């Protein structure tokens, strides 16, 4: 651009003989012109719900932005694909919205590329104006109690990954030859596992559950599932939808412990509406259970409250029982008493939450909480700059152009709607930081260098998707998920971009 072209305009706008003022005005106009022609380039690391919701919001609110969604697996959708129970297909309908986002011409999907392995955070920050980390939480919390490494002590996350076809878990082979399964934790994930184990295989074979899991469940001898929580019915973490599904499960009886419900009914009128409805449902089910006999199959769902595991008991390396301390409640907290109880079991799944991991040394990560250190989605600097360590100036407090959302930023809390709201909020920050020039668009940036990197494009994913649907159709299923990454890459490589 030739500065002299604008000189006449400047002299009209800034009538002065002071050459310094004219030059300053010319430089201001040049900067404005550059920033108006440079397209914001954004990288989102993680193609799960958090990443797609953020991309959807940015596309709508930041004109001319270009977005790369980078995912370590060859396939997109994260927990929607690998976490949602196979008998909940309606929850997966959000994939249709995510697909529209991915097929926007301003978006690129780059699968089979992993932060910390194929590229570094520093590289991303050099090649994009903004980077949003949304790669989720993939490590289990542990109980840290004796004998936790016994055979058949698994995590619910592993079990869900096994039946949902997450690559790397197809050979988990949980031992379902015993009579009982104990789930430690009372969230929706634990209830999902209970329902899948106790459900009719005839119903499951109509879903996208993996064939190997379906075959194993058809041979399962598990008749009783214990769902154990450290607090009481009023603090149960499962939602009313999941509880209703369990209560209506064919050929399965629900058995509550009456002692767990002391003084619960009298507290119902003062409860908030959502908690009131689910408590009423539990109390109603408790009242009815004396009238119902255990069905011929003998399958039984047994929620148990006020128990915390303190020891796994087993011989020959295999779990045989769990020892619990009996708790009492004080201000909503579980306080251990002197009382103990041991309940026999043949398989245990912990369901006590997840934590994220740091995949790159340059991520400011809180190992204790298991999430990226951030404030409202802006990643905090390791060391604040400026004279005032509490300063609120964005450049002093936050890593410029670096954000986090979803479970990586908040910890594993809430449902998909929670993730959507969080990601929309962080994406709004990104948009406002561009619009306020907090992120300075000095020059165009190239994005990730893909030379020599075997990535999967969106068309590659569509080829994988088509093959899964074809395989599923032959079996009367929505799809048969591929779990071999090598095969996925072969299919994707034949797709034209």
Question: What does this protein look like?
Answer:
With 497 residues, the chain is an alpha/beta fold. The protein is 34% helix and 20% strand. It is built from 17 helices and 20 strands. A seven-stranded mixed beta sheet has the order 3-2-1-4-20-19-18, with helices on both faces. It has a six-stranded parallel beta sheet with strand order 6-14-7-8-10-9. α3 links the parallel β1 and β2. The protein is globular and about 75 Å long. The chain starts with 6 loop residues before the first helix and ends with a helix.
Quick recap:
The chain is built from 17 helices and 20 strands. The chain has 497 residues and is α/β, with parallel strands linked by helices.
Reconstruct the topology from this structure.
Elements: H1 7-13, H2 19-37, E1 41-45, H3 49-61, E2 66-71, H4 78-82, H5 94-102, E3 107-111, H6 121-127, E4 130-133, E5 139-140, E6 153-155, H7 156-164, E7 180-184, H8 188-198, H9 201-204, H10 211-218, E8 224-228, H11 240-247, E9 253-254, H12 273-288, E10 300-304, E11 307-315, E12 318-330, E13 333-344, E14 347-350, E15 354-355, E16 365-366, E17 371-372, E18 374-375, E19 378-380, H13 394-397, E20 398-404, H14 407-410, H15 416-435, H16 458-473, H17 485-493
Parallel strand pairs: 1-2, 1-4, 2-3, 4-20, 6-14, 7-8, 7-14, 8-10, 9-10
Antiparallel strand pairs: 5-15, 11-12, 12-13, 16-17, 18-19, 19-20
Helix pairs in contact: 3-15, 7-8, 8-11, 11-12, 16-17
């Amino acid at each position: 651009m030739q500065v002299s072209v604008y000189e006449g305009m400047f002299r009209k706008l800034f009538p002065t003989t002071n050459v310094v003022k004219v030059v300053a005005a010319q430089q201001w106009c040049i900067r404005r012109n550059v920033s108006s022609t440079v397209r914001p380039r954004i990288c989102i690391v993680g193609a799960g719900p958090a990443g797609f919701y953020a991309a959807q919001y940015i596309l709508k609110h930041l004109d001319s932005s270009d977005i790369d969604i980078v995912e370590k697996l060859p396939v997109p959708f994260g927990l929607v694909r690998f976490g949602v129970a196979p008998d909940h297909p309606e929850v997966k309908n959000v994939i249709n919205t995510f697909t529209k986002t991915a097929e926007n011409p301003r978006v690129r999907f780059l699968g089979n590329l992993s932060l910390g392995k194929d590229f570094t955070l520093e590289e991303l920050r050099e090649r994009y104006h903004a980077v949003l980390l949304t790669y989720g939480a993939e490590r289990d919390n542990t109980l840290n109690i004796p004998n936790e490494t016994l055979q058949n002590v698994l995590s619910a996350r592993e079990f869900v990954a096994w039946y949902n076809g997450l690559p790397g878990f197809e050979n988990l082979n949980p031992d379902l030859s015993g009579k009982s399964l104990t789930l430690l934790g009372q969230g929706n994930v634990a209830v999902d596992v209970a329902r899948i184990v106790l459900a009719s295989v005839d119903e499951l074979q109509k879903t996208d559950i993996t064939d190997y899991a379906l075959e194993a469940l058809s041979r399962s001898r598990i008749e009783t599932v214990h769902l154990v929580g450290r607090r009481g019915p009023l603090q149960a973490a499962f939602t009313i939808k999941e509880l209703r599904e369990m209560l209506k499960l064919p050929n399965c009886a629900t058995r509550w412990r009456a002692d767990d419900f002391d003084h619960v009914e009298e507290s119902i009128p003062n409860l908030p509406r959502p908690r009131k409805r689910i408590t009423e449902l539990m109390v109603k089910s408790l009242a009815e259970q004396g009238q119902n006999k255990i069905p011929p199959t003998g399958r039984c769902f047994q929620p148990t409250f006020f128990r915390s595991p303190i020891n796994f008991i087993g011989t020959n390396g295999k779990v045989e029982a769990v020892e619990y301390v009996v708790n009492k409640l004080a201000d909503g907290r579980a306080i251990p008493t002197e009382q103990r109880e041991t309940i026999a079991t043949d398989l245990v799944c912990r369901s006590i939450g997840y934590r994220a991991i740091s995949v790159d040394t340059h991520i400011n990560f809180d190992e204790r909480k298991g999430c990226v250190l951030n404030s409202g989605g802006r990643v905090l600097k390791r060391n604040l700059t400026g004279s005032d360590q509490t300063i609120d100036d964005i450049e002093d407090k936050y890593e410029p152009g670096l954000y986090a959302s979803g479970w990586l930023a908040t910890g594993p809390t809430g449902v998909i709607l929670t993730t959507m709201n969080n990601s929309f909020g962080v994406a709004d920050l990104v948009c406002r930081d561009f619009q306020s020039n907090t992120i300075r668009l000095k020059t165009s940036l190239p994005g990730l260098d893909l030379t020599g990197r075997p990535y999967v494009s969106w068309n590659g994913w569509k080829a994988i998707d088509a093959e899964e649907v074809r395989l599923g159709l032959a079996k009367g299923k929505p799809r048969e998920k591929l779990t071999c990454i090598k095969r996925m890459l072969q299919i994707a490589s034949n797709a034209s971009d």
